[in-house]
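quick one, three chains, predict together pls
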Amino acid sequence: MELVDEVRKGSVRALAKLITLVENEMPGGIEAMEKIYPLTGNAYIIGITGPPGAGKSTLTDRITKELRRQNHTVGIIAIDPTSPFTGGALLGDRVRMQGVSSDEDVFIRSMATRGSLGGLSRATSDTVKLLDAYGKDYIIIETVGVGQDEVDIVRTADVSILAVMPGGGDDIQAIKAGIMEIGDIFVVNKADRDGADRLVTEIKMMLGLSSTEREWTPPVIKTIATEDQGIDTLVEKIKEHREFLVKSGMLACRRKERIRCEIIKMIEHEIYRYLDSLIGENKDFFEQRLEDIVNKKEDPYLLAKKTVETIAKRISKNANV
Amino acid sequence: MNQDKRIRVLVAKPGLDGHDRGAKVIARALRDSGMEVIYTGIRQTPEQIVDAALQEDVDTILLSILSGAHGFLFPRIMELLKEKGLGDILVLGGGIIPEDDVPELKKLGVSEIFGPGMSSQTLINYIRENLSQG
Amino acid sequence: MIEEDIEKIQEETKRWNRDCLGKHTFRKRETDWGLEIKPLYTVDDTKDINYLEDIGFPGEYPFTRAPHPSMYLGKLWTMRQYSGYGTADETNKRYKYLLEQGQTGLSVAFDLPTQIGYDSDHPLSQGEVGKVGVAVDSLADMETIFNGLPLDKLSTSMTINAPAAILLAMYLTVAEKQGIGPEKLNGTIQNDILKEYTVRGTYIFPVGPSLRLITDIFEYCSKYVPKWNTINIAGYHMREAGATAVQEIAFTFADAIEYVNAGIKAGLRVDDFAPRISWIFNTHNNFFEEIAKYRAARRLWAKIMKERFGASDPRSWMFRFHTQTAGSALTAQQPLNNVVRVAFQTLAAILGGAQSLASCSFDEALALPTEESVRLSLRTQQIIAHEIGVTDTVDPMGGSFYIESLTKKMEEKITDYIKRIDELGGAAAAIEKGYIQQEIQESAYRYQKEVESGGKVVVGMNSYQVEEPLPKGLLKVDTEVGAIQIKKLKELKTTRDNQKVQSTLLALRKTAEGHANLMPPIIEAVKAYATLGETCDVLREVFGEYEGTSVI
């Protein structure tokens, strides 16, 4: 596998090509990842999520600058939504990362969700591994930021940062709606605006109300990312949290949990591929069954069972080859 | 599930020119045709553009210039692309670029220049056709 | 009109619609901003308009008909073509030529490095020097540009925003060297930073320091340069970026409200600076819409100043504007067609009551205009001024059922937008949230789709095309301009008193770090021949730089 070797030698071009390969599920992708996997585990993964307008990209830019100042290398994955109607996407996060975009030790990749829910794209975890294997010290993932379904970040990152901003009042609603639990660190960005202190108090209150027992109390940090204020404190907290995870053994637990989820997803995805091609090859057959099921001539349970059996046969046939 | 290679395009505005109406309208039109468009914003240096193209592994770069600085910026970008081994990327230009200057730009490896009044469908077709050949 | 008459007319209109028009097939028309245009307007459409309150008389509140009582009967508009390119020498020659041809004011176009505060030898200036305007690195270039031009008899408009204070300081110094005091100077600096953040892109500093520079200019000029228009708030570039006519006025007024608030916050009295506010708008293709737009803007601005800000000086209420015809309406295909477009747009601007006007040249979709093409567009203005009788009476379109009704509708729509922006916290907040950018982009994209679908006919471009040869004789800027400027800079740096430069720049830094007015130390630095780049760098170090937040 030429590309993998080149990535190990430090080729940016090969790294970029491999990400494309994996993202497009092109031939050779899985084989490459098999070779990549043993090389992973050294990078620390930071997830940044929060509602639109909270300044996630600018925060990413500034955190990166601070990490670079401390001589760490950084990989960034910035995710934007794919249009469900056209399949296209506008990826505009680089605009706010001008400060680091021409730094040789920073690699930025914009990715579209391509139909995946949960705030990340399907290829995110593989891209993380590639950046890890390439040798980046820190990897920052910036999620789509729709505010509600961003829970995937917890499974992918070592530390999840939830960014919000004062004003509007929608933000705190978004937090209440269920993503409150995912933050290891809270950031109130644009803290020069009215209501910043109130927002900090509200978040602290909500964290206090939470019934879950915590060994780590998520800090709430005020930043003005555009003016570089509070960023050093934020990076300090990221490192403190890392130390906590390492000492308490939770980092290993989290990473094990992550792999567990990934394996299940890989299996689901693999099985789904069989299903997808099976249905694709037998469109008319399935249409007819559907018609019969609607007219109560057949029942759906039988069809489901038989389909699973067919997929199982195909899988075992492939395995034997 | 989509196994096709999705076309990735970098839309960039090199130089100091801030007129980005055309670049943005085109970025949206390309998105609506199903492509993934990476937009860099205005005031990009040739180095920034080539780094973005490298990291994002794009198939096409679209450069929009209305300021008349194409005579300096295009050659520099093409030179850097070759230096970084990205000579295979389809490079297209748009904006206000006099016809007289087009042959020189094409000699450098710019595939096509699209002037004012060009329809986005023409551009979309051009990208699709030229990428499928490549 | 008495009520029975209105009722009768309403009945008759209904009848006509049903029995007469109804028997014919016809196309429905709609404005870009969603108003359905009726096939016919009657007195019924203007019945809610009160003549004395809403329309009134020229030169009186609310100025719907005109800002001045006698309008073009007293004084024609200023004919002011936007020009400047290459070196200061070339630009000086072009200005002398235009003045010989009967132009009555100057409008300076600067190149992009000048507009963004970089000297010609800055790495980012490569390829840009002298391209879209004239290159100015120091006072020396400004001396050349205005060499032999009597600044006390001319009015000069400078399209300069982020470094406006520095270019104004240079202009004041050039005048002083000609023996002309600042109180005698007429002219305008654009000085409108908010629209640079949204659509034009030549910003340098963050919002806060930028607004400080603007209010410092307000304050300084109100004391020493009383006839100078200290800000030229621009809708032009928003329209070029795709805004509709309604958005153009609404977003520009929202910006203006932000500036007036900043002035008041800085401790100025509204009537001390509001009379020096001027405007630049874009006169586009839709003839009646453009005329109604300017009438609506005059009325609404008068109300905003009087009612919202409590201005009591009638000059504060007065909306006086410069306009340029729409560059984006020009086509690269069959460029001669643009002569006709420009003529109609110019006519609409005059019927709309412009105080100052630049007409585009027909070759501008292809390159900077040549001497011949710019002369033709100047002649277009002169023909409208002298030959076709539209200047014989004030506001000849006033009273047209369609125009009055459209004026009112536009005023309402503009007011709605301003309300929305107020809710978002004003223009600066709305820009930060990306609201204004997004609205403009939506309009731009909608327009593009209509053109591409053929729903909007653009003659010669998407309809009535012909095979045509490549255009000949376009203006080309000398590629050596960059080298010439760099050489001049080198010479300057060896001949000037560098110690003086350092001490004036240090004084500027100290002022920037404090709160005193920035104009005096800027003028001192300019006089010492500190370069534009050096001066801006001092401010960059103190103020920081604005970071582009391109919304898409």
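Residues 48 and 195 of chain A are 22 Å apart (CA to CA).
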